[in-house]
Amino acid sequence: MLVNGPAIPINGDDVHVLSTPVEFYEQLIQNISQAKDRLVITSLYIGNGQLEEKLYREIESFLERGGSATIIVDHGRGLRGEKKSTYARCLKMYKQYHHNLTLGYFYSPLVEQSIVAKRISQLQETLATQHTKIYLADDKLILSGANLESAYFTNRQDRYIQFSNRKLGNFFSILAQIITKHSYLMHSPDEGLNDARKVDFSSFKADVNAHLSNFDGLKESKHDTLFHPSVQAGWADVRNDEHLLESVLSNLTKEDKMYFCSGYFNPPSPLCQAISSTKASVELLSADCRANGFYKAKFPKSGITPAYQLFADDMLEELGSKELNYNEWNRDQWTFHAKGMWFYTSSSCFAASIGSSNFSHRSYLKDLEAGGLISTQNKSLQNALDAERSRIWAHAHERNTSIQKVPNWVKKVAPRLKAFF
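RESULT FIELD:
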C-alpha cells in the first residue's frame, strides 16, 4: 500500500493495543509511576473525581522525583468549573512544582476572533478546541481519543494504543512543544496565566510542517511497521490527517475492505468523496442515540443527538450509490466515543488509524487534532488490530431511526450549524 507523507519506522512487537477503559487507565497510571525523565499530557481537560485525583497524585510523585512534565489542555474547557476545574487543580500542583512543570492552555485563534465566545467558556468549545490526546511517559506513548475523565476510565468505549519507541515519543513530545508555544502559559504561581500571547497562523503552520518533514524515516527498512503521523488544524491550513486518509482510500483495491467508526458521524465532503470513490468495500459504525453522550441532555444540548441522526442521513446521501453497510453501536450503560479506520486485504488488517479526530466537519476545520496511521506486516499486530475492531463491532446492530424522534426545531437549526459538529 502506498501512503504519502512522513513515516517513522517501528517494530510491531512494540505496539500494544489496549482493550478496555480500565486497562487504559491502569496502563496510564503504571507508565507515569515508572517514568523517570519526561511526561507529556495533552487532552481536552482532566476531570475531578477520585480516579482523576489518583492520576494527579501520580503526576506529583513523578515531579517530586525530578522529572520534567508538560500538561496542555483546552483553555475554555480547562477553566470551566472554577474550583473544580482542571486549571484549579493544576495550579495547586504548579505552586509546588513550577520549576519542572509546564502548563499550557491552548486558546484557539477562532475563539480569539469572537468577542462573545471570549466571555463565555462553553461557547468557546462550540468554535474550536485543543482536542489532541497525547499521553507520553519517557518512551511509552499512548495515543487515544479518550479524555482524562472518569467515564473514559470505566464505561465509555474508546480506543487506546501504546507504542514503546523513542523516536515516536520524540515526535509527539516536540509536537506538544509546538502546541505549548501557541498556548497561554503559567509563568508564575502568583501571576496566573500569561494572556498576552497571540497566535500567528503562518507560524503555527510552518512549525508543524517543518516538524513533520524532520521525521520522514521511510529510507529505514529494517522494521515491519511504519507509523505515519498526522496533525490536523484546518484553521491554520494544516491538513495532514485528511490528506493521509484520502491517499490511503485512493490506493485501496476491490480486494480490500475498510471499517470506519465514529461516535459523531458528520464527515466533510472531501472525506465523503474519498469514501465513495474508493474501490474497497466499506463498513460504517456510529453511536446508537442511546450510546451518545448527549442523549436525553437538557435543552439545548438535547438537540445534539438528533442532530447527528440528520448528519448521518446527509452522509449516506452524499455517499450516493456506494455499496456499504451502516450499523450503530449500543451497550447497556455505556456510551460510544471510539473513532478510527481499519484496512483489510483478504482477512488481514494491514493498517489502522489512531488518534483524536472524529473525522467530522469540526475535526477537519476547527479543532486541533493529532494521531496517525499504523501500517504493518507484523502478524501479531495485525491480529491485535483485528481483535480490537471485532470487539467494537460486537455491539453493532442495524440502524433504527425510530428510537428517537427528531424535533422540528432541530431540523431547522442543525443544517445551519453543521460546521460546528
